[in-house]
Amino acid sequence: MRLVSLLPSATEIVYALGIDEQLVGVSFECDEPARARIEKTVVVGGRDTSEMSPRAIDDYVRAQLATGRDLYTLHAGALAELRPDVILTQDLCRVCALPSGQVERALDHLGCNADVVTLDPHTLPDVLESILIVGRRTGAEPQARDLVTRLRERLVTVAERVAGRARPRVAVVEWVDPPFRAGHWVPDLVHAAGGEPVCALPGRSVWALDGDSLVVRPGPRLVTGVEVIAAILHPDVVPGPATAAAARVA
After folding, report:
1. Which helix (H) or strand (E) holds 175?
2. Cβ contact 170:196 at 8 Å
3. For residue range 74-107, what is the model confidence (pLDDT) as tens digits?
4. Rounded distance, CA 212 to CA 31, Å?
């Protein structure tokens, strides 16, 4: 089977399942693991925003959408040459990745018969289910069940450690300029970590998290996000975050 992933979280899932030898194409944002963009063909391009401020990125996105221009460029010729059997994409967020409708139109134009699998999780349980979906559609269902079982066991471990403790009120700000609060599965992460998700001003303790690594992408690392948030909220019962993706802000 030949797979193409147009979604960073889907690429993470494919590698976590150990079926990356079937993966032939990725998007330019598929950076976990870092080698994905090196050893696979990049079939979706876009603007590099790594040196832009949050405000500049927001202005750019709004301008593109207002004028009907695309945020992502599908390299249709490269995609056709890969002859994929399955393409993993999404419809949840037009800003986050290439929508499935655009992919399907390109496939029709190219005469490709790939199976387009849309992953649109809204909750943490949905994210775990999306891992199972990828497993079923790629012939890796046993690996997917095993991975989800291990992730659920880690969530249970956190739940047991924070059970019965006071739940700090936690506001997660997904973007800082302009500010807006997080949604979808993020409140589930806070709740699973022993907090109470609210839309409120930050408290005395402020932490900066690597959103791509721990919060934003609906893949296996969300459970690491739960563990990190739990360690922040309940440091006396959950080991500290052993990751460079979280740091306390003075």
Report:
1. strand 173-176
2. yes
3. 888 888 899 999 999 887 766 666 666 777 777 7
4. 10
Residue with tokens 């405000």: 55
* Tokens describing residue 185: 């599965």
| Model confidence pLDDT, tens digit, residues 49-71 | 888 898 998 898 888 878 888 78
C-alpha 5 chain-centroid distance: 12
In whole angstroms, give the CA distance from residue 193 to residue 150. 17
> Rounded distance, CA 153 to CA 156, Å?
5
Average pLDDT of span 166-191: 88
Burial code (b: 16+ CB inside 10 Å, e: under 16) for 142-170 equals ebbeebbeebeeebeebeebbeeeeebeb
Across residues 134-160, what is the average pLDDT?
Answer: 97
Contact status, residue 186 vs residue 196, Cβ threshold 8 Å: no
- What's the CA gap between 117 and 133, in Å, rounded? 9
Strand 179-181 relative to strand 173-176: parallel, antiparallel, unpaired?
A: antiparallel
Report helix, strand and coil shares of the chain as percent, to nearest 5.
45, 20, 40
Residue 84 CA to residue 24 CA, distance in Å, equals 8
Continuous segment of H or E residues that includes residue 134 = helix 124-138
Give CA–CA dist 110/100, Å, rounded. 15
Q: Which one-letter amino acid corresponds to residue 46?
A: G
Q: What is the CA radius of gyration of the chain?
A: 19
| pTM, full prediction | 0.82
**Share of residues in the chain with pLDDT > 90 (%):** 50
